[in-house]
Amino acid sequence: MRFFNVEIFVFLCIFLFSCNAGILSPPRGESEIKIREENGKRILQVDADADLQKAIEIARGGDIIELHPRAIYKPIKLANKDTKDFIVIKTALDMDSDCLKQKNALAKIATSEGHLSAVTTATAAHHYRFVCVGFIHVGTDYVHNLVYIGTDSNKVNDLPHDFEFDRCYFKSSDRGITRRGLAANGINIVVQNSSFEGFGYPQEETQGIAGWTGSRNIKILNNYIEGGAENIMFGGSDPASPELIPQDIEVRGNHLNKPSAWKGRVTTKCLFELKNAKRVIFAENYMENNWDGSAFRITVRNQDGKAPFSTIEDVSIYNNVIVGSGDGINILGKDDQFPSQTLRGLKITNNLFLKLGGSGFFGSGYFVQISDGEDILIANNTVFNEGNIVTFHGAMPRKFVVRDNIVGHGLYGIHGHSNIRSLTNEFRNNVIVNNRKINESDKSFPSGNLWVESYGSLLAEDYTVLSNFKQKIGREVGFNPALLPRKLVDFIVKPKTKPII
Predict the structure, then answer these.
(1) DSSP assignment of 22-51, as one string?
(2) Right CATH number for 35-493 from 2.160.20, 3.30.70, 2.60.40, 3.30.1150?
(3) Domain range summary for the chain, segments of one domain joined by +
(4) Strands 41-46 and 33-38: what pairing?
(5) Average pLDDT, the chain
(6) By the 8 A CB rule, do 334 and 363 touch?
(7) What mean pLDDT do residues 354-367 have?
(8) How do strand 352-356 and strand 321-332 relate by DSSP bridges?
(9) Beta bridge partners of 262
(10) Model pLDDT for residues 291-345, shown as the tens digit of each residue
(11) In terms of pLDDT, which residue wins out, 24 or 366?
């Protein structure tokens, strides 16, 4: 009996020592996640040195995960949870303030060495909202996607869905390479009021935002976005099936920029590119400083030769202001390398293009370059271009109409067509500015258009056509700034260097 008591005593000593040493204490990460109730919601408060991934794992739909200001957290993977309510992840700041003006105060989720994204998603993960959170690449390695929404599965039901980013900060690495800020390969993704900075490198095809498989119902609203090769792009890699073609996309009210420090140092191609997409609206954006190439590239591409169903359909580009680009719009209606479908339904209306070609921008200064395609309307644009109005190459487009524009003639006007004068149905009611002083005998152009000697005689300070020219041509021509939101008009009249968000 006495021996038994000694055993009990020894066991109790070991047990107490173990507890004291933390062997049976809760895991460190969980112990630093404090949970409280507030207005009927659970708040998961994550300390600066806590495990954010653990908070993701224990969170339920409707929870708020509150991050410590200025803290830097390790990469996370967003789990697939049984909920229809958003899990909100936010910095513990006054949400009524403009948190992008205090970027240093934001909690940040960082990449780690080994090419890992800051944020990735599990298959079919859904309903996460980030508010006032930073995403940063701090290493010297190569990271393909700072934030990756997507899955390796080729099934639509496996796609991540319902993600929101509001007042968030995406920053590339100054020492390594961050190929893109956000890969949006999911359904119901909203990116608004956020800032993408960097994402431009030499000899690298980089983007601020891109999607290429499963991107559906995407809204990119009121952001400042930098990107090297493309600021925003959809397509560029082959989806496994037609149902994974990027579709139902709205890009509105953004400021797309390539900083002046990038000129000649960063690989640049365009500001907005579509290679494979359906039902796209691109409207009310301010775009500037495309140092090399065309502002828009609307080119059907079966990128790797494995997706002959690749297409571009039903795209509307309107009410945008473009300031500075080597060229205007490059349209390729059918892939010239691999089998593809034909572009159908492209409308480019009521846009203002300033400084196409010349003025430090590398390109020929054309307004439109086009090959193939069907049902294309280019109308009511005002264009300050150094190069041709339209350059045709390859197959001729069908149902192609250019009307009611104000545009410079450039060197050749319409180039690449065997019988320019026959294009009276395609080219009509345009105001052609003789900016290259073409002699009257050299003018070869379809009838039904008005020639003037200079922009100066045509345009008022707000870029509207003077009434006498409206009367001469009998209808509204050129860009109408009255259709733009106020903040975009302010950019035209009094250009600013700060983002419009």
Answers:
(1) TTTSPPHHHHTEEEEEETTEEEEEE-TTS-
(2) 2.160.20
(3) 35-493
(4) antiparallel
(5) 89
(6) no
(7) 93
(8) parallel
(9) none
(10) 999 999 999 999 999 999 999 999 999 999 999 999 999 999 999 999 999 999 9
(11) 366
| Amino acid present at 110 | A
CA–CA distance, 318 with 39 (Å, rounded to integer): 43
CA distance 485 to 350: 13
Measure the CA–CA gap between 378 and 349, rounded to whole angstroms.
6
Instruction: Answer whether 259's CB lies under 8 Å from 291's CB.
Output: no
Residue 272 and residue 296 in contact, taking contact as beta carbons nearer than 8 Å: yes
| Calpha distance 58→153 (Å, rounded) | 25
Tokens found for residue 222: 């009121």
Confirm if 77 and 104 have CB atoms less than 8 A apart: no
Alpha helices in 178-309 (DSSP H): none
| pLDDT for the residue 359 | 81
> Cβ distance 174 to 139 under 8 Å?
no
**pLDDT tens by residue, 93-124:** 976 678 999 999 999 999 988 878 999 999 99
190, 222 in Cβ contact below 8 A?
A: no
Cα–Cα distance between 455 and 313 in angstroms, integer? 34
Question: Which residue matches tokens 């936010």?
Answer: 90
| pLDDT of 19 over the 60 cut | no
